Amino acid sequence: MLVLEKNAMTEEIEQLVAKFGKGRSSLLPILQSIQRKHNYIPDFAQQEVARLLDIHPVEVYSVISFYAFLNTKPKGRNIVRLCQTITCDLAGKKSVALAIERELGIKFGETTKDNRITLEYANCLGMCDQGPAMIINERVYPKVTPEKAVEILSEVK
Ligand code: FES
Questions:
Q1: Which range marks the domain in which residue 20 is found?
Q2: What pTM value is reported for the model?
Q3: Which of 22, 61, 89, 122 could join 81 in a cystine, given CB atoms 3.0 to 4.6 angstroms apart?
Q4: How far away, in angstroms, is 132 Cα from ligand 1 center?
Q5: How many C-beta atoms surround the C-beta of residue 94 within 10 A?
Q6: Could you say which of 66, 90, 106 is where a domain stops?
Q7: Atom of ligand 1 nearest to the CA of 87
Q8: How far, in Å, from the CA of 134 to the mean position of ligand 1?
């Protein structure tokens, strides 16, 4: 089973290299394609991209860590992001964060076991006058209190 998966991933990356070319400039489009298809870039895929492009794996990893839209771990169906920038911080972000963590039983940076929710911190969401601000997928929630956050999360499928 594992061998089959490995072969499928290698084959997929070989096709991407054939499509985008073997140069360094192909690195980002190849990683984006893998991310689109798998929702993250597994360790094995990172190694294979490095091998097939003939670059160091650290280079692949540093590109992935630079771009927020590229992930090395699978994420949940819903991404909940809480603003951690100063204005929201002063407006009570901490108590909202604690209530969310308590409700979901995970920490920020983690994903629930059922893959329903990934928790992340975000930087200013442009709602500084209405903090603490939270964004779930594309939708922004202003003036979130701990109680409101728990209520909103209960509606996330
Ligand atoms: S500081 Fe949180 S939205 Fe700007």
A1: 2-66
A2: 0.68
A3: 122
A4: 7
A5: 15
A6: 66
A7: 1
A8: 9
